[in-house]
Amino acid sequence: MAIKRSIRLECEKCKEINYLTFKNAKKHPDKIELNKYCPRCRQVTKHKETKKK
To answer: What is the pTM of this model?
Structure first.
């Protein structure tokens, strides 16, 4: 059975949380790092997975 967890993606430059998504925690136990568009920076930057508060 897949373990789907909701995660938040935070911009590395401005530290703003821009995206909410899901990941399969069983297949991908490491933290996700994606290139996504940041509306605050107005450019494509790296977004890292953060802890859910």
So the answer is: 0.83
Cβ burial of 35 (10 Å; 0-12, 13-18, 19+) is: exposed
Structure tokens at 26: 């069983």
> How many angstroms separate the first and last alpha carbons of the chain?
25
What is the separation of C-alpha 24 from the centre of its chain, rounded to a whole number of angstroms?
13
**Structural domain tally of the chain?**
1
Of all residues in the chain, what percent carry a pLDDT higher than 90? 75
Domain containing 25 equals: 4-50
Q: Which of 52, 43, 44 is nearest to 25 (CA)?
A: 52
- CATH number of residue 23's parent domain: 2.20.28.120
Q: Supply 29's token pair.
A: 């136990």
